[in-house]
Amino acid sequence: xxxxxxxxxxxxxxVMPTIGIMLYFLVTTKQIxxxxxxxxxxxxxxxxxxxxxxxxxxxxxxxxxxxYQLKKRKERKLPxxxxxxxxxxxxxxxxxxxxxxxxxxxFHATSLGLIITYFLLNFSIKSSIHLLSIGISCGFFMMVALxxxxxxxxxxxxxxxxxxxLGSARLHLKAHSPKEVYIGFLIGISTxxxxxxxxxM
Length: 201
Known about the structure:
Number of helices: 8
Order of helices and strands: HHHHHHHH
Shape: globular
Helix content: over 70%
């Protein structure tokens, strides 16, 4: 049980955007200046990690949520709606910066994935946001690989292995049903390819 909690914490949805971008900067062949990388990481960390923590603290203080785990479906709606706006804003920001334009796909896809997740809550489907996040990471690096001459096979394999570990951890912790885990992962991958199609329309 302890191992599964560690995996769920290490690859928490609010951590994954920062991890994904750091991995991207490590493997990309684009000539991105070090200060640009640092500034992007700080903006992403502040928006996708620090802001959600503050939001959850406020909601807990106002008794809008019972726990930080957001176990109840109704508790997820407001945080999800706010995160949709934050990720969409990040996507628009990086879309305007030519050298960083590629990573806008990551954030627009996440925004779309969260919208779908929010929509599914109305049908009593609590799809896994953990698996949504790692699914988006898998899809993003697959898309980058398709557009590049460089091989991203190792990082894609690592992402899929993490997805397997994370899915198993969420099931062992009884946080989700198998259906909710699979739905979350499939939403993640499909939204990346869906947003890529939108970009090229």
